[in-house]
Design brief:
The protein has about 210 residues and is an all-alpha fold. It is about 80% helix and about 0% strand. The protein is built from six helices and no strands. Helix 1 runs antiparallel to helix 2 (about 40-70) and helix 2 runs antiparallel to helix 3 (about 75-100). The longest helix is centred in the last third of the chain and has 35 residues, at about 170-205. The chain is globular.
Length: about 210
């Protein structure tokens, strides 16, 4: 690691860890959604909305710290990119839950549970990785695995689209379900953006 003569603001590490932990909360709510009936889904959506607001607060705190800090632990643009990508993940997960409730989806298509399982695993890996930004240790396996998971998510998404367009669903239902699976795919992409940003930071700091 590069030797520095100046002190660095360390609260960013704690804030990134808190943001990632909140994403784990969101992924657990997604898992709850799978087996829930309509009233339970509405309650899950409320809890997801609260988690999304907590994620916004965490992101704003990082931006405020960034604007008020003279010394930062790594490049400012990377801090901004990492915070924004973490926030995007939470936004997409909240949007997916909200759409399920707003569209009164009775049954999610087979394969959505696989999407959510991939997101749950990516959330766990991201939460485990954030504290390691302090030392830049043990991060290579993290971004490799998240990129693998994103590739897996792509395959699941393509199969879901093929299933939706096989003639089983009417046109309106296809539009509703496609929007939900597309948003879940965007969440997987956002996890990859986080991992790629972490890799960029690690390369710069090596």
């Amino acid at each position: 690691m590069r030797f520095r003569l100046t002190p660095r603001e360390t609260s960013f590490y704690d804030m990134f860890a808190a943001s990632a932990d909140n994403i784990v909360t969101g992924s657990k709510l997604l898992m709850e959604l799978l087996g829930a009936d309509a009233p339970a889904r509405a309650e899950i959506a409320e809890r997801m909305r609260a988690a999304e607001h907590a994620g916004d607060d965490a992101t704003h705190a990082i931006f405020h710290q960034l604007n008020s800090s003279f010394i930062t632990p790594f490049d400012r643009e990377d801090i901004y990119s990492l915070a924004s990508s973490l926030d995007d993940i939470m936004d997409f997960m909240e949007e997916a839950v909200d759409l399920v409730v707003l569209y009164n989806i009775e049954e999610l298509p087979k394969g959505v549970e696989q999407q959510i399982e991939v997101l749950s695993r990516a959330a766990e890996l991201t939460a485990e990785a954030m504290p390691n930004l302090r030392t830049m240790d043990n991060l290579t396996e993290y971004w490799i695995e998240v990129n693998r998971l994103e590739n897996q998510a792509d395959q699941i998404h393509r199969k879901l689209l093929a299933h939706l367009f096989n003639g089983k669903y009417d046109a309106i239902e296809v539009l509703k379900l496609k929007q939900i699976v597309d948003v879940l795919e965007e969440a997987a992409d956002a996890f990859e953006h986080v991992a790629n940003t972490v890799e960029t930071i690690a390369v710069k700091e090596s």
